Amino acid sequence: xxxxxxxxxxxxxxxKGNVNVLGRKNYTNxxxxxxxxxxxxxxxxxxxxxxxxxxxxxxxxVGAALASFEVPFFNNLVLALDRPFVHRIRIVTGKDTNALxxxxxxxxxxxxxxxxxxxxxxxxxxxxxxxxxxxxxxxxRLTEPSFERLSSAFFTEIGARFL
Length: 163
Prior knowledge:
The chain is mainly alpha-helical. It has one domain (29-162). Helix content is 57%, strand content 4%. It is built from six helices and two strands, in the order βαβααααα. The protein has a two-stranded antiparallel sheet. Helix 3 (60-82) packs across helix 5 and helix 3 (60-82) runs parallel beside helix 6 (144-162). The longest helix has 28 residues, at 29-56. The radius of gyration is 18 Å and the shape is globular.
């Protein structure tokens, strides 16, 4: 049976007859489209919520409530952005500052560093070459516009490197 997925298979798994892909060298257009559609629908739902709340109940308390919701929502969407492509391999993503590696660092920082941006020893992160321009030690506080820039760059990079 062929899955259409090329990847790196751990020898211990292939010897047992299991085919677990531990790393991906390519993705399909369908996978890319499915991920993009999922995120677009979540952003659309967010915009509808904002519209409904601000037009029905305007006021400074509403604005404060939305502001307190926006950052955690879009920080969590970074995790959703990354998940379908989490098995991408370094030989394809590279070690330079690009949107794929920036998302990897963001996810690791959100999950393991209390939302404070951290680098690592593998990725050669340069803030001026990144989408968001975060410095190591900055709090991660994504908004709708910053998430849109990041996700657009991420999908462009996935398409260029993995399709």
